[in-house]
Amino acid sequence: MAYKTPGGEQLFHQAYSNNLKRWNVSYEILNIPTTYGNTHVIASGEKELPPVIMLHGAGMGSTIWYANIEALSKIRRVYAVDAIGDINKSEPLRSISNPEDMGKWMAEILDHLGIEKTDIIGHSAGGYITLNIATYIQSRINKMVLLAPAASFVPLHKQFFLRLAFINAIRNKGFIRRFFCHWFIAKGNTIDNEVFDQFIYGILHYKWKVKPVIPKVIPKEKLQTIQVPTLLLMGEKEVIYNPRRALMQSKASIPHIETMMLSNTSHCLFIEDAKNVNDSIINFLF
């Protein structure tokens, strides 16, 4: 069992279902067997449309794309993938904590879906995974969108790790929401508190079975091998690192990259300013 108690598992799955109700499009659930475990995928959009893979940030699962799915599923067949080894509905057997395994895992998913080449969108830890996939199987990627990728270009602030340590020590729902979840939102912006229940119940009740992905800075010489057209979006109020420094490093590292800094947004920019993010992604993919 991936949870400490049956009650904790029920709380998490109910929160996951509640967030999925925020999707105002039709969808189907796919369970894809891989060497690394059963991968849970939420698919939306017409099957005839070009594909896009979406990789969520740590602790949230694919339901977090509720503010983006309607716009994106009009132009793409969207496969929102629950990353193996994170807190979601995938069932891990092996870790994808190194770049080669990230690439092999994604290649198996694409093979199962019959996809030769795809676009990929990744947020936070999902952005870090996306970059590593691109260094391993970039021949299978058309375009890549990075939304505030965790580490990757610059180290994470020490405050991030401090806050993470505190919420694992003070295991209180209200404290986790205020001290950690709300930290990722720029002042003046709001996200429904219930959205974070999925993350909170995961932190409180999930029992890790494999080593999770821990984002770190990717060597510049490795990033320079990526020839995939890339769009990088960041919020000017980003808290996990200095966003301006990260943008500078990205431009010096990835040959074909476009960057954009969104005002009055932080780490949750794809929800905080969903229309701007959606429009930017759609314009780039076209």
TrEMBL record:
InterPro entries in the cross-refs: AB_hydrolase_1, AB_hydrolase_fold, AB_hydrolase_sf
UniProt-listed Pfam families: Abhydrolase_1
One Gene Ontology cellular component: membrane
Domain AB hydrolase-1: 50-156
Protein name from the UniProt record: AB hydrolase-1 domain-containing protein
Taxonomic lineage: Bacteria, Bacillati, Bacillota, Bacilli, Bacillales
